Amino acid sequence: MGTRLKVLGVFKSLHRTRMAVFKEDDKALTAARLKINEEFKKNKNETSEENIQKMIKMGTDVEIVLRETVLQMEHVGESRLLLRPRESHMLENVPYCDEPRKKS
């Protein structure tokens, strides 16, 4: 895959992740969009293949961090927050058991 396509892929991936992570939060959506666009515009004239590969890696890492670690919360009172986990944060609730299951 060409470098231009990789860069475009990372750009699109960051924007898709932004839309999922900051869903229904217009302020955060706008701030993230502006920051992503700013970083890509700032480096659009980069010609060093090594630097471009480092920036692709950085963009991919940022996308992973956003997708896996950022949680949405909303103030619902003066001292209360409502947590809005995404489906990817939900784990199957399996009860803990000290004894291993016996094979049938």
TrEMBL record:
InterPro entries: Complex1_LYR_dom, Complex1_LYR_LYRM7, MZM1/LYRM7. Keywords: Chaperone, Mitochondrion. Signal peptide: none annotated. It is found in: Mitochondrion matrix. The keyword Iron does not apply. One of its GO terms (molecular function) is protein folding chaperone. GO terms for biological process: mitochondrial respiratory chain complex III assembly. The keyword Chaperone applies. Residues 6-59 form the Complex 1 LYR protein domain. GO terms for cellular component: mitochondrial matrix. Coiled coil: none annotated. It comes from the Eukaryota. Interacts with UQCRFS1. Belongs to the complex I LYR family. Assembly factor required for Rieske Fe-S protein UQCRFS1 incorporation into the cytochrome b-c1 (CIII) complex. Functions as a chaperone, binding to this subunit within the mitochondrial matrix and stabilizing it prior to its translocation and insertion into the late CIII dimeric intermediate within the mitochondrial inner membrane. This is Complex III assembly factor LYRM7. It comes from Acanthochromis polyacanthus (spiny chromis). The lineage of its organism: Eukaryota, Metazoa, Chordata, Craniata, Vertebrata.
